[in-house]
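User: Predict the full complex structure for these chains.
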Amino acid sequence: MKPSIPRGTRDFGAYDMRKRNYIFSIIRKNFELFGYEPIETPAIENISTLTGKYGEEGDQLIFKILNSRLHENQKKELLTKEFAKTLQTAYNSPELTNKALRYDLTVPFARYVVMHHHQLTFPFKRYQIQPVWRADNPQRGRYREFYQCDADVIGSNSLLNELDLITLIDTCFKELNVPVVLKFNNRKILTALAEMVQHPDKIVDITVAIDKLDKIGKEGVNAELSANGIDETAIAKLEPLLDFKGSNAEKVQILKNVVGTNEIGLKGIEEIEYLLNAATTRLKHLTLELDITLARGLNYYTGTIFECKANAGTFTPSILGGGRYDNLTGVFGLNDMSGVGISFGIDRIFDVMNELDLFPASIQAQSTTQILFINFGQHEATYCLTIIAQLRSEGIACELYPDQKKIPKQFEYADKKKIPLVCSIGSQEMESGVFTVKELQTGLQEKLSLAQLLQKLKR
Amino acid sequence: MKPSIPRGTRDFGAYDMRKRNYIFSIIRKNFELFGYEPIETPAIENISTLTGKYGEEGDQLIFKILNSRLHENQKKELLTKEFAKTLQTAYNSPELTNKALRYDLTVPFARYVVMHHHQLTFPFKRYQIQPVWRADNPQRGRYREFYQCDADVIGSNSLLNELDLITLIDTCFKELNVPVVLKFNNRKILTALAEMVQHPDKIVDITVAIDKLDKIGKEGVNAELSANGIDETAIAKLEPLLDFKGSNAEKVQILKNVVGTNEIGLKGIEEIEYLLNAATTRLKHLTLELDITLARGLNYYTGTIFECKANAGTFTPSILGGGRYDNLTGVFGLNDMSGVGISFGIDRIFDVMNELDLFPASIQAQSTTQILFINFGQHEATYCLTIIAQLRSEGIACELYPDQKKIPKQFEYADKKKIPLVCSIGSQEMESGVFTVKELQTGLQEKLSLAQLLQKLKR
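Assistant: Here is the predicted structure of the two-chain assembly.
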């Protein structure tokens, strides 16, 4: 039987792990420099916690977990009551499944805040780096298991938080050396538009439709809008916004003309202008772009919306998303907890950095092991173990070849693993205490005492 | 609706995260010092990959994932064919579920080795630090989601690998300062015993029964043995082994007498003696104890078996397990790949260290943020942001209080989060460029320039 892994999932070998850990470490370091504290939540959440937060499309993509070990009477119940009905019923039956894999880190975070808010200090700034799962159709940059790196602050509605997050994004991508455009928008504008076209109820339909502009074009968007029962005149009112161009300042001007006196629209414009003015002077790396088509599928955003894309190469999916949510904890019974956060898509950042070859040469090396000790046999091996113990206690990563194989075979092992040095200790070296050390790259061979070897390795 | 999390799962706040990361970092560092390379595998594996590897009891504890989005015709199929039959059938129907959450890291590792063996260099030493899931009944030290930290070497049957792993265990627990007894045994002994009592087929039953000695006592074990069809005389032959005492050397002697000339038994004794002699001189911290009742439920062990328990406090569950498996990759079609590995149960190590209060004082601090800047209003805040950007670029973690709340409220935030310093920059300080900095613990208040502040923070 040939083994395989589920589609949309991946194995990561040592080489990829080093690259990924490089990204993780830079993001984690900056999360902490910016005052965010680490938390972790379970991969498994109650279904009731997750459903209804991501829109209908999202709910479809939640991986549900089969209940383990049912009681006999429950089984009968299910067999008769549930499975007699349609499969759909059985699928949603809590007796069959009441747990699911987390779909993102934001909703579990909101759940966490509600459950622990008595012990937390607000405004609460947390970061969280964990995998999430989505039963999506795998394609380039879209996986069924992928990591999210989230930073959120909850319990404060100050725009200084948005500003701090923009700076955080700027700092991380600058250090990662990834060319990035940060597109942003404000959900209040979209709400205003929905109001203005007399379809306040249809904001989700409208935003989801607008969100697809890049994919399905104007005609597509308009078709979807009218399919959602939005009439010609309303659609006409929206259309000019689908291709407004120019500098951010010019775009704001267009927005002002369209929004007119709509109250929530004006509030949205005010927020946009504040961030544009405050951020522009501080950004060291990012390109900031106001994008009215940016809506993001998620239902819970109420203010600023963020999205980052690589500014070079052929990789188009967004590599970061985020925004302001005024009442995500409300569904769990805790109101007046406005939050804002961002999520780095590190699997996609990994893809971008691979395509653009942005990883430093230092982590191109395959092995952390600095020196391999040749195994000449039981007696010599035992001697080597003592040397190895001393080197490791000095922080030097080293290995003894475990098997008494032919010497060339052992050198080949070091070569393949890109271990830079090989140390040969035979009976002669054991007597003299002077070891033969070979640099594989240069071929240079030296006779070194333990002290000299240690000195060489510490360099 | 009051939110909750599934039983057996946990949330980890910043304080616990710091303690857990302390354990992770020490284990990871030593894994790399010993030449193990990092890999990661998906949380989701095909059911066929997992089932049949952990014994019947284990298979029962595998969390299965409901297939997403079935095609209509599949649904009908299921409705008629499967769900007409018993629920058990439906439960195992691949149309209903073909994926599951990994149960440990060893089987996925074997699967990984088989799928990637053309790119790997053997002997292949890998470490893997990821969560696993088991639908077990939660109790003290037993969770449904927990982390494993595994180090394995595969493609070598040299006992030097066992020796290296014992040294690795010794080094990690010494650095963690956790008092530990390392119990070990050899599966070959158990095989020999099964042969000697004319029940070679019953080795699993026998080992599983013996494994329960601590829990159900001699009578319990004997009852279970005879329940498994092992006759009185056979049980009698085994009994002396259930309470053999003394030093490791004395135990080996008893073993020799019992095993007699049984070939595989003698091989097992040879391996045990080698490890005892080689390890004892090298151990700096561990207590090594030969324990014939140690069998571990897992089917795939064939040689040495490891298990660690805390040597102090009231926490009895094992905190590390491992052993030699001669042909785990065979089930996936790759033979002659003997491997040996260990798995640190960091959630239990965390519990032990909490009970024994073994975490260093340095990580008892709640916050990584070194200094909080008071928010006196838009104008002052904007000024602070520039200072903050400079401090962060120097590697100082700092925050601006995002809201223009009353000053005492802002100091309370720093106090609760255990942020050591608070910096107040009002209009006066902005003019003079000299800031007021207060140490919350001592109450000491200083006037510092940015340069002086930076100096103070770097100390």
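The first strand of chain B starts at residue 37 and ends at 38.
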